[in-house]
Amino acid sequence: MRIVGIFLLLVMCLTTQAQTDQDLSTLVDGVTFPNPVFVSPDPPKPIKGWELTSVSDEKVLKGEYPGEIIKFRFKGTAVGILVYSDNHSGIIEYSLDGQPWFELDTFSKDAETTLKGYTLDKDLKNRKHTLQIRIMERNNPESLGTNIALRSFYTNCSLKSCMEF
């Protein structure tokens, strides 16, 4: 499987603002992420299989095609994602630093989209890491699709330490 895109996101430039005054930190584990840094998935160039679009008036990276991989590089001891879930949402696989792939089902029974936070790992060494995400062909039997609407990556690093990579 080929890798179709790499994100080198500079946190200082791409840290997002809370959506219309809603505090996004309420969607994440406050113990692991006491001061989460949210990073918008805004690639410098288009990635095959993924498109920048809007959900609930926010920019999201939407993936519809299974197998296409995106990468996110970060520094910290924990990482998570914010995704919009609904009854068309699919299953992703993710891998950190080339380790085995894990599955995450983002399906929701609701037809209306809901923003959800998912902690992907919280026991990492405090150094540079690479997160890979791909959409699976198989989906939840109740889901009407395999779509993924990625709103943000988030880490638990301080702004200063994130900028060191």
From TrEMBL:
Keywords: Signal. Residues 1-20 form the signal peptide. It comes from the Bacteria. Residues 55-134 form the Carbohydrate esterase 2 N-terminal domain. The keyword Signal applies. This is Carbohydrate esterase 2 N-terminal domain-containing protein.
